[in-house]
Design brief:
The chain has helices at about 10-35, 45-50, 75-80, 200-210; strands at about 60-70, 85-95, 100-110, 115-130, 135-145, 155-165, 165-175, 185-195. By secondary structure, it is of the alpha+beta class. The relative contact order is 0.16.
Length: about 220
Amino acid sequence: MHSRSIVNPRTLSVLRAVFAALALTMFGTAAAEDSDGTDAVTTTPKQAESPESWFQLDALSLNVYGLAYHPDRDTVHRENLDNEFNPGLGLHYELTNTARGVSFTEVGAYRDSGSNWAKFASLGYQFKLGESWRIGGAIAAFNSQTYNRGVTFLGMIPLVTYDLGPIQLNAVYFPKFANYNEVAAFGFVIRSRTRVDIARSEVRVCALRDPFPIQTPV
């Protein structure tokens, strides 16, 4: 039995070029903002208090997967890829958050169009458009029996986000790509912020324990 390459050399070269461009965009944007000296990196009080920590709870969010839509209705029914209820969970972590955009990484799993469990890990960047809109994409490594005959592969995923504050609404596009993904699909994801400032919570609890202390006269 002959082993089959995950991607052909030409495709691999294109993906490497896209990955390099994405990385240059993320780090170049952060460097440009630092040199401007204005609106550098958006930080929280917890981040400012512990700059030595590489992990910030404030930057972590929960993704809830659920719905999809396939424009090519005939093909998905014929190929039995018409599952459009895609429950699953994932974690979203912001690597940088500047006035121009956000770089992030994600891991997660969901029930895909072929009713198999799809697992993925991604690295991406989104530009900010106004106060609420973000547009960009991510390079993701996928593994599922539905895609590429169960062989892990890399894909470029466009992503649009509308920020409502406590939650974010996300729309992603999975393009048809050779034998790796046989039908295009739109996916819809709700992101819930899990940001908790532990230090502030402790201060509030202490303040509420005895808001009106009784003083004993001498």
